[in-house]
TrEMBL record:
Protein name: Endonuclease 8 1
Catalytic reaction equation(s): 2'-deoxyribonucleotide-(2'-deoxyribose 5'-phosphate)-2'-deoxyribonucleotide-DNA = a 3'-end 2'-deoxyribonucleotide-(2,3-dehydro-2,3-deoxyribose 5'-phosphate)-DNA + a 5'-end 5'-phospho-2'-deoxyribonucleoside-DNA + H(+)
Sequence ranges assigned to domain FPG-type in this UniProt record: 236-270
Transmembrane segments: none
One Pfam family per UniProt: zf-FPG_IleRS
Similarity comment: Belongs to the FPG family.
One example GO MF annotation: oxidized pyrimidine nucleobase lesion DNA N-glycosylase activity
Cofactor needs: Zn(2+)
Enzyme class name: lyase
Length: 271
DNA sequence: GCCCAATGTCGAC
DNA sequence: TCGACCTTGGGCA
């Protein structure tokens, strides 16, 4: 689930269900019990997302910091809330709704200073492009780096919110070889990548899934069978190893890069 | 039942 | 570069 679009969508969904209310806050699993006790019955005043980090603001200055990691999941439902399972780290419940958080890497009560420190170590987020994201800050790092663009796009200090799917897909959409060094990415190329990420990720928030295939390459347009992929969206290369490229018909390749699976089309994305 | 993979990150060596 | 961490679901016996 969790790339930046998921987290921004969650910020919206938590706000829609709980902002302005004073939910019961519990931690059936126990790992967040002390903080839950401090917060329960206080008002959820706002929510925020930066990259893959989610912040739930209670009262004036209390923040719950959530990071889903690879496995974290969030489930919303209507009242009355069913009995929680014993893996629920955090539950909010009010008179109309409940939401359960399971398996997060982080769920902690933090101060405004600690929250600021998290923002400070994150790069610009394409989903905050209309407020405070500066793509040139990302380019300054990229243009000075001998690291591959594939690795740089996953580095949250460089760009916040891009994960393994958007990384693979945006490089394909711009026909960029994932192994090219950051310093060999031209300013116009970075501008195009950033603009594309803004559009793709906004659509991801809207639809709650990642779709990257242009209309002219959809199954209908190309006269090929509908996708059989199971990750939720229509994509060019992600998890399509050894399958034919939607554009050129060549074989999609996969490789390990920094402990993650990289996918690309060597024919469309030439060095 | 067991084993593996998964849209992530950190810290030890 | 590697293991640790958090949880679920699918494939297989």
């Amino acid at each position: 689930m969790p790339e930046g679009h998921t987290i921004h969508r969650l910020a919206q969904d938590y706000a829609a269900a709980f902002q302005g209310t004073k939910p019961l806050v519990t931690s059936p699993q126990g790992k967040f019990s002390d903080a839950a006790e401090l917060l329960t019955g206080s008002e959820l005043t706002r929510t925020e997302a930066h990259g893959k980090h989610l912040f739930l603001g209670f009262r004036a200055t209390d923040w719950i910091h959530i990071h889903l990691g690879l496995f974290g999941k969030v489930t919303f439902g209507g009242a009355p809330a069913p009995p929680p399972t014993d893996t629920v780290r955090l539950r909010l419940a009010n008179s109309t709704a409940y939401v359960d958080l399971r398996g997060p890497t982080t769920c902690a009560l933090i101060t405004p200073a600690e929250k600021q420190a998290i923002h400070d170590r994150l790069g610009p987020d394409p989903l905050r492009a209309d407020t405070d994201a500066d793509p040139q800050a990302a380019y300054r790092r990229i243009s000075r780096s001998r690291t591959t663009i594939a690795a740089l796009l996953m580095d949250q200090k460089v760009v916040a919110g891009v994960g393994n799917v958007y990384r693979a897909e945006v490089l394909f959409r711009h026909r960029i070889d994932p192994y090219r060094a950051g310093k060999d990415i031209a300013p116009v190329e970075w501008d195009a990548i950033w603009t594309d990420l803004v559009g793709l990720m906004r659509e991801g928030v809207r639809n709650n899934r990642i779709d990257t295939v242009r209309p002219e390459h959809t199954p209908e347009a190309m006269g090929r069978p509908p996708r059989v992929d199971d990750h939720g969206g229509e994509v060019y290369v992600y998890r399509r190893a050894n399958l034919p490229c939607h554009v050129c018909g060549g074989e999609i390749r996969t490789a390990d890069l920094a402990a993650r699976n990289l996918f690309w089309c060597p024919n469309c994305q030439k060095p």
